[in-house]
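User: quick one, fold this
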Amino acid sequence: MEAEKGLLQEIRHTEEECCMRLEEAKRYAEQVIAEARADSARILSQAEQEGIEEAQRYFDAEMAKLGQEIETIGEGAAQERAKTLARGEENLPAAVQQILSAVAFEV
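Assistant:
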């Protein structure tokens, strides 16, 4: 009987050790999970920030290209306007003469 009690106590002691190890393993696993969640949140936040910064750089670069294109178009329009004005000034005497001839002819 004493041998059975000793054996039962040994089994209980082993069982308690296993329970303690299991609890320790649970705490460790929970700690690892918490750290992984914190790391993933940090990585996600960092990735979002980097994405925002990259998007801003892309936007700025495209806006600079667009500004350059607008400037080029404006310069082309100014040159075209100057050419048209010059042609109009060249044709002005002939146009005035035609108008005067048409009006004088009708009188």
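User: anything notable?
Assistant: The helical segments are 2-106.
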